Amino acid sequence: MLTKHLLFATFAGLGLATAAAPGVTAEPPLPLFDAHLHYNWEPAPYYPVGKVLDLFRANHVTGILATSRPNDGTRALVEAATKDIRVVPFIRPYVVRGDIQTWFDDPKIFELVQSEYKRGYYRGIGEFHLTGKAAATEWVRRTVNFAVEHDLFLHAHADDEALEILFSHNPKARIIWAHTGFGTPTEKLSRYLDRYPQLWGELSYRYGITEGGRLSAEWRSLFLKYPDRFLVGSDTWVDERWARYGAIMDEYRGWLAQLPRDIAEKIAFRNAERLFGK
């Protein structure tokens, strides 16, 4: 299993909450679509559903890609969804955390995916974890083909080798790459984005985007070249991420503000709206 790595530093002095001059209306914060949201119910949720929705509103989050372990948390968010917050539910192929290590070789997990899909509202499968040739199992192949057959996205926390194997199972797969490879070099990312037109990078925990609080030259170049291929996400996999939710969203806005407005909006929320609808 790939481990989580810390990426973002605190953005100081970037004017994230600048006061408006007298008589001038402050520009509202850039809306964000959180494309990596876990509302885990194992062992218990950090916040009740109502407080979660309030947290999204307070941080100008207009939509979420929702997953949970088990899927009860996702169902709760779907049932609580309101007009101002779009919930895009994905099937998590886990019941308990230990499934991270075994799901790819467990026929019961594939049965879970098939059964959960019958609820009729899911848009994808994941987030799931794969390293190397663990992606080459029969049950992963069936999961990829099931997703293609039913027009579902795959949300893959995968290393480079596993990503390539997923596409080899079915070139029609649509994959959201959690963390965009963590530390995969930008030159290789560019090759992947050219090679796999149905690959999108989600940017939580992604190394190298900023240098000293400024958007790095290589990532600026990548965003300008592929503005339609990136999404932002919080990855609330542990309580600490929920506690820092507002800071995480502000960190995204800090470097998005250094891009042309149209490109910043695509990465912030428009790409997600294009993929999942408004």
- Please write the CATH class name: Alpha Beta
* Strand numbers in spatial order across the main sheet: 1-2-3-4-5-6-7-10
Alpha-beta content class: alpha/beta
Could you state the CATH homologous superfamily? Metal-dependent hydrolases
Q: Can you tell me the CATH topology?
A: TIM Barrel
Radius of gyration: 18 Å
Mean pLDDT: 92
Domain module tally: 1
Q: What's the end-to-end separation, in Å?
A: 34 Å
> SSE order in H/E notation?
EHEHEHEHEHEHEEEHEHHH
Helix content: 25-40%
Largest beta-sheet characterization: 8 strands, parallel
CATH architecture: Alpha-Beta Barrel
Low-confidence stretches: 1-20
Task: Give a short overview.
Helix content is 37%, strand content 17%. By secondary structure, the protein is α/β, with parallel strands linked by helices. The two termini are 34 Å apart.
Question: What features would you describe in this structure?
Answer:
With 278 residues, the protein is an alpha/beta fold. The chain has a single domain, classed as TIM Barrel, CATH 3.20.20. It is built from 10 helices and 10 strands. The protein has an 8-stranded parallel sheet, sandwiched between helices. It has a two-stranded antiparallel sheet with strand order 8-9. Helix 3 (107-117) packs parallel to helix 4 (138-149).
